[in-house]
UniProtKB/TrEMBL annotation:
InterPro entries assigned: DUF4251
Domain of life: Bacteria
Protein name from the UniProt record: DUF4251 domain-containing protein
């Protein structure tokens, strides 16, 4: 009988904690909705997930600390996606294989884009409580298709697919500019 009382008290205490979590989520959901309405936000990634071509790099010992070929730590690496009005600035490190073309000596091998995308679509999925943003940008002959998922807890998932490189994904957070 005593065990039953202890278990019931524990369940009640956990139930009280849940309501506080729901309030925080509501505040974060409102903040995210305001950023989407204002069209002004910044995404910073904490992890990169290359799809191929990093095993050779891993064998050289050049990956950042706390990284492996499938998950690269970006905490000490400058990176962002900034949206201000209709304009987007993007600077993301790239780990993977270039399929054609390529950078010459001294060229930056990161993904750097700036301007107004040729395509930009935003949708909100009420059931999943997330925004999906798709935009397309071009740099010289290379075309980048970027899909961004923004979640109500202010986290983000970004997937970049290029005509010249293997795909790469990023995970991070969003904040107001």
């Amino acid at each position: 009988m005593r065990v039953l009382v202890v278990v019931l008290c524990g369940v009640l205490l956990l139930g009280c904690k849940t309501s506080k979590d729901l309030e925080t989520s509501a505040a974060q959901k409102k903040a995210l909705a305001e950023m989407m309405e204002d069209k002004s936000y910044e995404i910073t990634s904490k992890l990169a997930f290359p799809t191929e071509g990093v095993i050779t790099l891993a064998n050289t010992g050049l990956l950042p600390r706390d990284s492996n070929p499938s998950s690269i730590n970006l905490l000490n690496t400058s990176n962002y996606i900034k949206k201000s009005g209709d304009s987007i600035r993007l600077d993301l490190p790239y780990f993977g294989t270039r399929r054609m073309g390529g950078a010459g000596y001294g060229d930056d091998n990161s993904i750097m884009l700036e301007g107004i995308p040729s395509t930009y679509k935003t949708t909100y999925n009420e059931k999943k409580q997330r925004y999906k943003i798709f935009f397309r940008m071009r740099k010289k002959q290379e075309i980048f298709n970027v899909t961004v998922y923004l979640f109500s807890n202010l986290t983000s998932d970004v997937r970049v697919v290029s005509t010249h490189r293997s795909p790469i994904s990023y995970r991070g957070s969003i904040k107001e500019i």
